[in-house]
Amino acid sequence: MGLTKTQIFDERQNELAIIFKVLAHPARIAILQYISSQKACICNDIVEEIGLAQPTISQHLKELKSIDLIIGEIEGKKVCYCINLNKWKEIQTLLNSFFDKTKFNCC
Amino acid sequence: MGLTKTQIFDERQNELAIIFKVLAHPARIAILQYISSQKACICNDIVEEIGLAQPTISQHLKELKSIDLIIGEIEGKKVCYCINLNKWKEIQTLLNSFFDKTKFNCC
DNA sequence: TTTTAATATTGCAATATTACGATAATAAAA
DNA sequence: TTTTATTATCGTAATATTGCAATATTAAAA
Q1: Which residue ranges run through the membrane (chains A, B) (predicted)?
Q2: What is the domain count for chain B?
Q3: Which pick of A8, A19, A32, B62 has the fewest CB atoms within 10 Å?
Q4: Domain residues for A51?
């Protein structure tokens, strides 16, 4: 069906899945790595760096923005995209909590 | 197109994306949490716990197995699924490395 | 050997994702 | 004001994912 049955899972499980889903594309990984390594993180530079069409990059940026992982600051005609450090740390902590909380009773 | 252009990204970026993708479903999060909390982690118990049809669970288990996150041990007619602790730790380390390596020069 | 129980696989319908051309929106520059 | 540059949105084609009924496979039990 292609439709995830979110209603049978709890909020935490759905939240984790959404975060993982946003990160589950090499272009979005590459965008994050590029943004984080540059002093100026202009959208157009990202398009040239990654090698996907401008609308495609714009869409990936939108998905990263949807969980506040990046912030876009308008600078005239351009937009400077930056990683949202607070959210970044928050997500890293959340993922570590998921990995750590998982105990291994069996086998 | 629906087809990810993996060839324009490096191996590390693609590997990270695949790991995130496997984790990007609440059912698979729930399966991992359930398996890790049980002494016996029989496939049928997972089906009853999660509330999805048996073939659907079987498919999700297959995806978790695809990156060796879980191991299925055959016990007669039943299969006992367990988390692969070594891979679990390895992936946690890899994700932390990704989060840590990302520096923030801009903004 | 036949039956039963547990799990995997196949096939398919419905929805989601990816990618991009065309175009709109926005703001600086001419 | 018109042009130009930059980014966002829309529409759409192609592929992927999700979920399940039907069925196959496997191994213990009868």
Answers
A1: none
A2: 1
A3: B62
A4: 13-94
